[in-house]
């Protein structure tokens, strides 16, 4: 055999598509060492799992020498009943971000385009680039007061090459949600061969009745897929389980692209237990929604312009002063999520954490 060592002096060849991918920045953990510290940087549920959920997880832990049920049979049955959809329309994954990545694998590759609003969920550009497809980012509209999807511009951005559109509703990180009429008008304009993904990671926090539940829209639209997660309202971020609801060809393709045994048995059992304890869980969500109303009102009273949030976080557009605000908050004991040069996203936490954040915001405001 000839000497091949000269053929690859730089080591294994990696896909060019991976060059320059921004890395996903997880929310910083709460600071240690200070008198108190709260993590308001990852849109997590601040409350610990319900007792029944913990018991299910502990019981499942006794069998971690076995692979999980790859078909997620019981979880599918529970989800199908809870949401009134056929089990064949469901596909689970390692968090909804895992399912989102599978959606790209099933629809898009080099030469294809993926449309989404910007700024929106920071994983969209990363997973789009990994797929080899090209991101088409459509700026948010409505200024600091609305920070909303510009659905007309997004529909105008559709070309022959468009394969997938992410609609983040409510939008991370601004919290803005889309009224039913606007979303329906948009869906009517999108060609049927383009998959529209309604990412509803924060659906349980929506209280504005004008905002439609994506599950109502998907039923008679085969090109609509709804993404949901157990990470936020259900408080299972650490277990990595999310799911899609979509018509059969899409759901079946998602199941094909899933990492085998990706959703652990612990995650499956916890998700089932959470669905069965939904009333208790959603009481906690209600407490966070009350906090949201309070925090938004206080911020406005302090003189801030903040968009209406339908999620478990609020958004402050601080521009050049973003990093400074994040530092001040950290010094005071709350870790927030800065997007340098743009603004900070602050998750709603326990009342004491929110109160601390409001103190920081009030002091900062006086200096502006
Ligand atoms: C809009 C949106 N979609 C999806 C996710 C992913 O959540 P997970 O992968 O934990 O389900 C997040 C998490 O921050 C999000 O904000």
UniProtKB/TrEMBL annotation:
<feature type="modified residue" description="N6-(pyridoxal phosphate)lysine">
    <location>
        <position position="232"/>
    </location>
</feature>
<protein>
    <recommendedName>
        <fullName>Aromatic amino acid aminotransferase</fullName>
        <ecNumber>2.6.1.57</ecNumber>
    </recommendedName>
</protein>
<dbReference type="GO" id="GO:0008793">
    <property type="term" value="F:aromatic-amino-acid transaminase activity"/>
</dbReference>
<dbReference type="InterPro" id="IPR050106">
    <property type="entry name" value="HistidinolP_aminotransfase"/>
</dbReference>
<dbReference type="InterPro" id="IPR001917">
    <property type="entry name" value="Aminotrans_II_pyridoxalP_BS"/>
</dbReference>
<feature type="domain" description="Aminotransferase class I/classII large">
    <location>
        <begin position="39"/>
        <end position="348"/>
    </location>
</feature>
<dbReference type="InterPro" id="IPR015424">
    <property type="entry name" value="PyrdxlP-dep_Trfase"/>
</dbReference>
<dbReference type="InterPro" id="IPR015422">
    <property type="entry name" value="PyrdxlP-dep_Trfase_small"/>
</dbReference>
<dbReference type="GO" id="GO:0004400">
    <property type="term" value="F:histidinol-phosphate transaminase activity"/>
</dbReference>
<keyword id="KW-0808">Transferase</keyword>
<dbReference type="GO" id="GO:0030170">
    <property type="term" value="F:pyridoxal phosphate binding"/>
</dbReference>
<keyword id="KW-0663">Pyridoxal phosphate</keyword>
<feature type="region of interest" description="Disordered">
    <location>
        <begin position="1"/>
        <end position="42"/>
    </location>
</feature>
<dbReference type="InterPro" id="IPR005861">
    <property type="entry name" value="HisP_aminotrans"/>
</dbReference>
<comment type="similarity">
    <text>Belongs to the class-II pyridoxal-phosphate-dependent aminotransferase family.</text>
</comment>
<dbReference type="Pfam" id="PF00155">
    <property type="entry name" value="Aminotran_1_2"/>
</dbReference>
<comment type="function">
    <text>Aminotransferase that catalyzes the conversion of aromatic amino acids and 2-oxoglutarate into corresponding aromatic oxo acids and L-glutamate.</text>
</comment>
<dbReference type="InterPro" id="IPR024892">
    <property type="entry name" value="ArAT"/>
</dbReference>
<dbReference type="InterPro" id="IPR015421">
    <property type="entry name" value="PyrdxlP-dep_Trfase_major"/>
</dbReference>
<comment type="subunit">
    <text>Homodimer.</text>
</comment>
<keyword id="KW-0032">Aminotransferase</keyword>
<dbReference type="GO" id="GO:0000105">
    <property type="term" value="P:L-histidine biosynthetic process"/>
</dbReference>
<dbReference type="InterPro" id="IPR004839">
    <property type="entry name" value="Aminotransferase_I/II_large"/>
</dbReference>
């Amino acid at each position: 055999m000839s000497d091949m060592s000269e053929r690859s002096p730089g080591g294994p060849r990696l896909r060019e598509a991976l060059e320059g991918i921004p890395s996903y920045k997880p929310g910083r953990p709460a600071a240690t060492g200070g008198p108190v510290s709260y993590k308001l940087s990852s849109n997590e549920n601040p409350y610990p799992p319900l007792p029944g959920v913990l018991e299910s997880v502990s019981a499942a832990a006794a069998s971690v020498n076995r692979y999980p049920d790859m078909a997620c049979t019981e979880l599918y049955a529970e989800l199908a009943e809870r949401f009134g959809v056929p089990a064949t329309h469901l596909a689970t994954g390692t968090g909804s971000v895992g399912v989102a990545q599978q959606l790209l694998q099933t629809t898009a590759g080099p030469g294809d385009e993926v449309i989404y609003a910007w700024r929106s969920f920071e994983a969209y550009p990363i997973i789009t680039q990994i797929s080899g497809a090209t991101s088409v980012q459509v700026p948010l509209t409505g200024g600091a007061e609305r920070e909303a999807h510009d659905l007309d511009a997004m529909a105008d951005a559709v070309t022959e090459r468009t394969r997938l559109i992410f609609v983040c509703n409510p939008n991370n990180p601004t919290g803005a949600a889309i009224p039913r009429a606007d979303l329906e008008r948009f869906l009517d304009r999108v060609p049927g061969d383009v998959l529209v993904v309604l990412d509803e990671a924060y659906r349980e926090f929506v209280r504005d009745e004008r905002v439609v539940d994506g599950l109502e829209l998907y039923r008679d639209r085969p090109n609509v897929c709804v993404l949901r997660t157990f990470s936020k309202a259900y408080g299972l971020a650490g277990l990595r389980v999310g799911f899609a609801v979509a018509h059969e060809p899409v759901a079946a393709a998602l199941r094909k692209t899933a990492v085998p045994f990706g959703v652990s048995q612990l995650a499956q059992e916890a998700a089932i237990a959470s669905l069965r304890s939904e009333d208790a869980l959603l009481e906690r969500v209600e407490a966070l929604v009350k906090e949201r109303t309070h925090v938004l009102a206080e911020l406005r009273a302090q003189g801030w312009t903040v968009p209406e949030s339908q999620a478990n976080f609020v958004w402050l557009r601080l521009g050049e002063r973003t990093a400074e605000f994040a530092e001040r908050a950290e010094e005071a004991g709350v870790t927030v999520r800065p997007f340098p040069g743009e603004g900070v996203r602050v998750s709603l936490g326990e009342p004491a954490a929110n109160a601390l954040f409001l103190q920081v915001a009030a002091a900062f405001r006086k200096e502006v």
